[in-house]
Write a structure and sequence with these properties.
422 residues, alpha/beta, Peroxisomal Thiolase, Chain A, domain 1, 2 domains, three-stranded mixed beta sheet
């Protein structure tokens, strides 16, 4: 019998909303969390805006030792994991811990702490030979991103497989895809899965400035991220984390768990083309979409909503619009599409998991989040991108897609479990 995968718990730490309820409130209000960067002085940089989390680790439930030990990204992951576990109703102590796995995505790991510590040990960059005696004891944890997966595993008492998935901007989707495969193949019954990122730092800003990937729209921070809009100028950095509890479907039903959705399909491709470049026809993304739909036995004409990558760059907008048309044909014009990056920015490796949480909530509440700041639609783009205002609509099948530096293309299909019940 094929093992199926249910989503039974959600946790989120996002710009403008710490906790799932607050996060969903931001999205459905169409409110942007983008502002002038406060984490450091952004004056020297081309792009000076970001979507930051208003973060108080003590208020979020972390103790003094955890606050000192954990990088900001790891703090996001632990707090989101606690919320997801509580939401799921699972009692880890009543389960075989070896059957609980952990899968965490991150593109840049503990960037914040690593940069802060380099500044200290190099005396502000003045010393080529750094003095290790000034480093904090936790520096090794920050250097090894797997430490974040270990923290999540400890939070859940999970003794099964634990892994970090790092595939750039698709990490959050790929970590969930890996988790689903662990359940399908029988390696685990429950996986604590998701992604986290805290990349808003001088080094990250400098990297994106160098390739002119981030927006120069600094005068109106809340309107800086404009996916599918004629006036868009690049992505807006974000941060945050999202953790989901994935569980074998029949087991979840037996214990009476609330099931948000089934992970019905997952596929990933590489374009083997360019580190940052994308072809406008979207063939590789289209192939991932086709594969995910086929796994879920969903006809393209039955797809109800697409959560787009929607990073706010012209190349990406054209690429995924081409992919949607290639996979869905005429139905692409009848399928609502939106990008929540317009509100919470692009949190690199974390964004895919934050987007899947949004998709699960869209199915739960019958509301599709909008694309904020879409005031002047690009005349070259002609799909239904849900501008400005959330839309009430029941959805039985939802597709979330991601596109990452290096040519990674990922698609994940969520569906109501009863669609496939025989």
């Amino acid at each position: 019998m094929t093992r199926r995968v249910a989503i039974t718990g959600l946790g989120a730490v996002a710009p403008g909303g710490v906790g799932v309820k607050e996060y969903w409130g931001l999205l459905t209000a169409g409110r942007s969390a983008t502002r002038i960067i406060t984490a450091f002085d952004p004056t020297p940089f081309r792009s000076r805006v970001a979507a930051e989390v208003d973060w108080d680790p003590k208020a979020a439930g972390l103790g003094p030792q955890e606050i000192r030990r954990l990088d900001r990204a790891a703090q996001f992951a632990v707090v989101a994991a606690r919320e997801a576990l509580a939401d799921s109703g699972l009692e880890p102590g009543s389960m075989d811990p070896a059957r609980i796995a952990t899968s965490l995505g991150s593109a840049v790991g503990c960037t914040t702490s690593l940069e802060n510590e380099y500044v200290v040990v190099s005396d502000g960059g003045r010393k080529w030979t750094v003095d290790h005696e000034y480093a904090v004891p936790e520096l090794y944890r920050h250097f090894v991103p797997s430490s974040m997966a270990a923290e999540v595993a400890w939070t859940a008492g999970a003794e099964g497989p634990a892994a970090i998935v790092s595939t750039g901007c698709t990490s959050g989707l790929d970590a969930l895809g890996y988790a689903a495969e662990l359940i399908r193949e029988g390696t685990a019954d429950v996986v604590i899965a998701g992604a986290t990122e805290a990349p808003i730092s001088p080094i990250t800003s400098a990297c994106f400035d160098a390739i002119k990937g981030t927006t120069p729209h600094n005068d109106e921070p809340e309107r800086a991220c404009r996916p599918f809009d004629r006036t868009r100028g690049g992505l807006v950095l974000g941060e945050g984390g999202a953790i989901l509890v994935l569980e074998e479907l029949q087991s979840a039903r037996r214990r009476g768990a609330h099931i948000y959705a089934e992970v019905a399909g997952y596929a990933t491709r590489s374009n083997a083309y360019h580190m940052t470049g994308l072809k406008p026809d979207g063939r590789e993304m289209s192939e991932a979409i086709d594969d995910a739909l086929a796994q879920g036995r969903v006809d393209p004409s039955d797809l109800d909503y697409i959560n787009a990558h929607g990073s706010g760059t012209k190349m990406n907008d054209r690429h995924e619009t081409g992919a949607f048309k290639r996979s869905l044909g005429r139905h692409a014009y009848a399928t609502p599409v939106s990008s929540i990056k317009s509100m919470i920015g692009h949190s690199l490796g974390a964004i895919g998991s934050l987007e899947v949480v949004a998709c699960a909530l869209a199915m739960e509440h019958g509301v599709l989040p909008p694309t904020a700041n879409l005031h002047e639609p690009d005349p070259e783009l002609d799909l239904d991108y849900i501008p400005l205002t959330a839309r009430e609509q029941r959805t039985d099948t939802v597709l979330s897609v991601g596109s990452g530096f290096g040519g990674f293309q990922t698609a994940m299909l969520l569906a109501r479990p009863e669609r496939s019940d025989a």
